[in-house]
Amino acid sequence: MHLLLVEDNQNQREILAGFLSKNGFDVISAEDGEAGIRLFKENLVDIVITDFRMPRKNGLEVLQAIRRINPLAAVIIITAFSDVNDAVSVIKEGAMDYILKPINLQELLTKIKAIRSQIKVEKESSSVMDKIPQLNISETFIGKSKKIMDVLSIVQRVADKSATMLISGESGTGKEMIAEMIHSLSPRRNNKLVIVSCAALPDNLLESELFGHLRGSFTGATSDRKGRFEEADGGTIFLDEIGDISPLIQVKLLRVVQNMTFEPVGSSRSKTVDVRIIAATNKNLSDEVSTGNFREDLYYRLNVVPLHLPPLRERKVDIPLLIEHFLTDLKVKDKISFSAEALLKMVSFNWPGNIRQLQNTVTRLVTLTRSDLITLEDLTLALPDPKLGSADDQSLVGREKDHIKNILDDCNGNQVKAAKMLGIHRNTLARKIKEFNL
After folding, report:
1. Which one of 43, 95, 128, 251 is CB 3.0 to 4.6 Å from 90, fit for a cystine?
2. Which region among 115-129, 162-176, 383-397 has the lowest average model confidence (pLDDT)?
3. Terminal Cα-to-Cα distance of the chain (whole angstroms)
4. Who's near 80: CB < 8 A, 6+ residues apart?
5. Closest residue by Cα to residue 113 from 83, 74, 153
6. Exposed, middle or buried by CB within 10 Å (0-12, 13-18, 19+), for 196?
7. The pTM is what?
8. 102: preceding bond cis by omega (within 30 degrees)
9. Beta strands in 174-235 (DSSP E)
10. CATH of the domain at 58
11. Is 335 found in the same domain as 253?
């Protein structure tokens, strides 16, 4: 593995270079920031270790230049304790880690080895990716709008990497489908994609679900159990609704993201895995960080490659394509169609439940229709409030609240049934009920 060491202190530079070389790394050294950037351009480098305070471009400027040249190269910042706030700022800019002076050589080696395990698959992928049959992602994720084309472009560029990803977007926008697509396009595709709904379990059960447990570690633990991270070893783990995890789980997850190590519940022995992490949230995690609900360091660790999925109301040009796709899936494309007026109403509707709600609505319409043509009259059965989506002065939030209230009324308060009609997860519905005080 090739390392670039940027350090203006000659003695420190020689000590570090000698130590790293003895531990099997191919090290090139630079005496200042400008020289470091020049050597980075001229050499194939996996990891950069750079001092923060240097003449002729400091560590932040070195990091910014490296991110422009090759955003997938890992950077570790060396900093004094008095500059730790600056170190945190460069983590936000994309540095992988930082280490304080005086440098503990074993700690530095541990950090480098952790990074090496994360990029191992990337180095191996270059020789095998040409042999992997690519999915036709334009058929896997339906849409021709510019926003969806931008999303699919990012998917194609990052699928063969191991960088941690954070997919954001409202419920029902297809975050899990995107995660499945990324895994299917990656060198890890022959190993497991493990999906975890973080909002579905309380803390004690979620910790056991993620990290496993030993027999007798808590009431009901009658045998040892592997966690989902261990199940995903060599593959991908998809952490859905990551914004809902508690501070306790955030601390434990941070360690896994940093070092790929964890302890099962009830165990003092660490386990190490090689897993690509894809997280998803329907919350604005930046706002959650500002309010203290989500750890800032974990947020930046997860948000290495951000990907935002737009809501359906922002890509209405895709709605006819999606409807056609759902009709084909239902094997009724040639038998059942929408009238022009009904299709226009479907396009004008705001779809607070996004793609999932649209799909459920098309299924419901096909099931209930008495002819081979779905009309405006049919839509009144599937869309209880026909004014939803029209150009009125009511806010989007207000329309969403009214729509959910109408569905709940139609279901006599049955939340499970209402969630199915809305095309959203029942946990999402429960949050909306609390948010809207319904």
Report:
1. 95
2. 383-397
3. 58
4. 52, 53, 100, 101
5. 74
6. buried
7. 0.60
8. yes
9. 193-197
10. 3.40.50.2300
11. no
Per-residue pLDDT of 56-71, as tens digits, reads 888 889 988 888 887 6
Structure tokens at 404: 């959910």
Which residues fall within 8 angstroms of residue 113, CB to CB, at 6 or more apart? none
Q: In this structure, is the dihedral angle defined by the CA atoms of residues 422, 425, 426 and 429, taken in order, positive or negative?
A: negative
- 150 lies in the same domain as 118: no
The verdict on 251 and 361 lying in the same domain is no
Same domain, 253 and 390: no
Tokens of 161: 């990497």
Question: In angstroms, how far is CA 30 from the centroid of its own chain?
Answer: 35
pLDDT in tens, 246-282: 999 999 999 999 889 999 988 888 899 999 999 999 9
Instruction: Say yes or no: 317 and 234 in one domain.
Output: no
> Does residue 274 share a domain with residue 148?
yes
What is the predicted pLDDT for the residue at 272? 92
Task: Retrieve residue 245's tokens.
Answer: 């995890």
How many Cβ atoms from other residues are within 10 Å of residue 29's Cβ? 19
Q: Please, which pLDDT band fits residue 334 given cuts at 50, 70 and 90?
A: low
Dist. CA 400–CA 203, nearest whole Å: 30
pLDDT at 79: 83
